[in-house]
Amino acid sequence: MKQILLITDGCSNVGMSPVVAAAHAKAEAISVNVIGVLDDGDLGEFGAQEIAEIARAGGGMSRLVNTRDLTQTVQMMTRKTVVQTIQQAVHKELQQVLGTSTIEALPPEKRGEVVRVMEQLTETTDLKIALLIDASASMKHKLPAVEEAIADLMLSLQARQGNSEVAVFHFPAHKHGGDCTMDVDFTNQFSKLNHIFHNLPLSGTTPTGPAIMYVLQAFDQFANRRRVDDETDGMMSDYA
Length: 240
Fold this sequence. Notes:
Rossmann fold, six-stranded mixed beta sheet, globular, VWF_A, alpha/beta, VWA domain-containing protein, vWFA_dom_sf
């Protein structure tokens, strides 16, 4: 199960529409959640609208939160996206097998069994999360809260039974005019994520759409590497 968690505090102002980019993600079965980080002021009507539209196009959720509530929100949205995706899959299966699309329509004994399976899947399903962090100039005083929220998310993921892998990206890249860069490749060694934003240079532009597309490419590259690794393991096993 794959998801992008975008943490931002402003409107995109460079490159393609982030709403279009989020729709591309959804088409590839990658949900996009968006957290708008407030700090004393607000995002403005346009910023709040864009955040909601990105999440809607990406099949995810959106929230506007203060920095003090960021940690709780990051954990909540990560888990709720997993639950929501599993529910959608179960409802689709129920429709095909039983002709009903809601759990509530099942007999009580069957309903309890389905709920137990869903709860188990929530904890055991493999999860890949791409954390996409807005590092534009206005995020300077919010990055410590973002880093703290990521650290707490890692603790909650470690408690899951299923394999959880996380990658971290920030945008803009600040190097050679790039739109986005990868700070940590997909890993379940969460110690690699410590202090990733230490002395991070900040820039004024916000290329949110191109950054989402960059993350989609990273998902593809990760899948290709995993496929090559599996094929290599298979060839070596022939000699074992």
